[in-house]
Structure formats: structure tokens, C-alpha cells
Design brief:
Spore Coat Polysaccharide Biosynthesis Protein SpsA, Chain A, alpha/beta, 349 residues, 14 helices, 9-stranded mixed β-sheet
């Protein structure tokens, strides 16, 4: 009934827990497909999978990114439904039975998902739905403005629906799942969720600052793709334009922060001014004033504040905002945290 697709890339230390969490499901009509996406630690990965060798289908391919790994699993799947689980995440035992009950209660349902617990290290950090409350209606418009956000590791999708939508877009290394959910919803797919926490998602702390900026840029690419390829309404097109402008401003703010960390105050000022031209708030305006008046002092104070907050990028809430699952976003070297949500809320320094 359900094919569980697990992309594997640099997740050797977690893959056994992921597979074991599927084998412990109270829903048993399933198959497990592990796709080794050209992982550089393949011998270690295969050693970790050895205890499960007779219980999984193991596929190996050259690196194609998270989209390519999932697409391989989708095309090889025999189940009516697809469940996605990233190699460093894991499920509670009733995850599938809870979601499959939603499909049994509504024959026309195409996708169902649930809440996640975010893990920082191995410690629970926050519930995804507490960071991003979900709209009661899951459709293209609510997904577009992030009133709903679907974690890939929590999603079960009708295989026929995802094939009809055209599989994951392999040109994206981040936000590929956000692109998929939008295309599904625009095509009329019916989606719902339950609010129990059944999935544990590890937040990747390596390369956080670089991830933030790359994620935002790819999120812009997704929005621009929607506007260019879908017959969206005038109102939806205006919403997309507004969202793109806000994210571009956030990108400039990030560039400003990186320049401050490098001591390049002119570049920081240039990026800050670009952000202010799109949108501004009192924090950004105050920062630009201080940067013009006393750049070295402001830079030193900024770095001191960043250290006090325990994050060189100075973003106190970066973990929660950037690692809320739902828009799979990864570095080109295949970040193991396959599903990462990017908040587009207005932020200052």
C-alpha cells in the first residue's frame, strides 16, 4: 500500500534509526526503498544498512540531488502511496497508521501530513506547527503565503498524483519539495493534515549562514517558476511579486551581515541600502545610521552581539526559522537535512 522512499547522502550515523523507525510502524503494508545518491561514504552507509538488507530495497546511483534521489524511488515504487523520510529523520510508530486513516476517510485525498518535532543536536527544540500555525485549508494560496508548510518527512502522497504533477524538479537542490507541493495544489490535489507530532526532524547546524542565503535565493526561483509556468490569477501574481521582493530584501540583509563579519563595511552599507530600498524597519534604519556614522564600532558591536547569541550570523531564531521542515533546501553538496522551511517574515539585524 505504501512505498517509503529514503534518500541517503552523508547520513550514515542516522540511517539505521530512520530505517528502524519504519520497520517499527504499526502500519505494516509497506516497502522501504533506500536510494544511495552517490554518497561519498558508501561503504559505511552500506555497513549501517547491512542488518536491514533483507527488509529494504537498496538502490544506488550517481549523485543527482534530493529531487533525483526521490524521483528514482518514486519510479521504482510499487505502492499506491508514497511516504517520504529523509535519512537523518525518524518516525514514531503510529505515523503511517494515523495518516493512512485520513486517506481511508476521504477517497479523493491526494496528500496528508502532520506536525514535526525539531531536534537541535538530539534535544527537542520546538514543534513545527508552533512556529508556523497551519491554516485549516491547505491549497495553493495558503501554501504560497506559507499559511501552511508541509514537511517532506511527514508527507504521504498518492503516487498517481505525484506522477501526474511531473515528479520533483531536479534543477532545485533546495526548496524542491515546496515547488512540488505548489504544483500539486495548483493542479487541484486535495491536501489535509493532523496536528499530532509523529515525526522527528534533525536541524543541520553546519553551514547555517550559507544555507539561509542559498535557501532564500532558491525560494525566489520557485516563486518565479510559478509565475512563469502556471496560469495564476492577477491576485496570485501580485502576491508572488510581493513575496519575491520581501525575500530579496532579506537576502540583502543577510549579505549585509556577512560583510560585517568580514569587516567589509562599505559592502555592508551597500547591501543594507538595497534592502532598505525594498522594505525597511526601525532596526535596519538604525543599523544603517550607525554603520554610516561609526562603521568599525558598529561592526565590533554587531560581532559581540552575535557571539552573545551563540551564532556568528547573529540570528537568534535562525534554527527555528530556517529548519522548519517543508521546503527541502540543501547545499549543492547535498546537505543531509533534506527538508528545511524558510520563513519570509520581515526581520531586521
Amino acid at each position: 500500500m505504501v512505498s517509503v522512499v529514503i534518500p541517503a547522502f552523508r547520513c550514515t550515523q542516522y540511517i539505521a534509526q530512520a530505517v528502524e523507525s519504519v520497520l517499527q510502524q504499526s502500519f505494516s503494508d509497506l516497502e522501504i526503498i533506500v536510494v544511495n545518491d552517490g554518497s561519498p561514504d558508501t561503504p559505511l552507509l552500506e555497513a549501517a544498512l547491512l542488518p536491514f538488507w533483507g527488509k529494504i530495497r537498496y538502490l544506488k546511483q550517481a549523485t543527482r540531488g534530493p529531487s533525483g534521489a526521490r524521483n528514482t524511488g518514486i519510479l521504482q515504487a510499487r505502492g499506491k502511496y508514497l511516504a517520504f523520510l529523509d535519512g537523518d529523520d525518524y518516525w514514531l510508530p503510529d505515523h503511517l497508521v494515523r495518516l493512512m486513516a485520513l486517506f481511508q476517510g476521504e477517497n479523493a485525498l491526494d496528500l496528508a501530513y502532520c506536525d514535526c518535532m525539531l531536534l537541535k543536536g538530539e534535544k527537542p527544540f520546538a514543534n513545527a506547527f508552533s512556529i508556523e500555525p497551519q491554516s485549516s485549508v491547505v491549497n495553493f494560496d495558503s501554501l504560497l503565503v506559507e499559511n501552511c508548510a508541509i514537511s517532506t518527512s511527514s508527507a504521504v502522497v498518492a503516487r498517481e498524483s505525484i506522477l501526474k504533477a511531473g515528479l520533483f524538479d531536479e534543477s532545485f537542490r533546495r526548496c524542491e519539495d515546496f515547488d512540488m507541493w505548489l504544483r500539486l495544489a495548483f493542479g487541484g490535489a486535495r491536501m489535509t493534515y493532523h496536528s499530532d507530532t509523529q515525526v522527528f526532524h534533525r536541524m543541520n547546524e553546519a553551514g547555517l549562514s550559507a544555507d539561509r542565503l542559498s535557501m532564500k535565493r532558491d525560494r525566489i526561483r520557485v516563486y518565479e517558476k510559478m509565475a512563469a509556468t502556471l496560469p495564476v490569477t492577477i491576485e496570485q501574481r501580485e502576491t508572488i511579486s510581493r513575496l519575491v521582493a520581501h525575500i530579496k530584501a532579506d537576502c540583502y540583509v543577510d549579505e549585509m551581515k556577512y560583510a560585517l563579519e568580514e569587516g567589509n563595511y562599505q559592502a555592508a552599507l551597500d547591501s543594507g541600502n538595497r534592502a532598505k530600498a525594498i522594505k525597511s524597519n526601525w532596526k535596519l534604519a538604525t543599523s544603517l545610521f550607525a554603520l554610516r556614522a561609526a562603521p568599525q564600532l558598529f561592526g565590533q558591536l554587531y560581532l559581540l552581539r552575535a557571539r552573545m547569541l551563540g551564532d556568528r550570523s547573529g540570528k537568534r531564531f535562525a534554527d527555528a526559522e530556517d529548519h522548519f521542515p517543508g521546503t527541502g533546501n540543501h547545499e549543492d553538496d547535498h546537505d543531509p537535512a533534506y527538508s528545511v522551511h524558510q520563513s519570509t517574515g520581515e526581520k531586521g539585524l
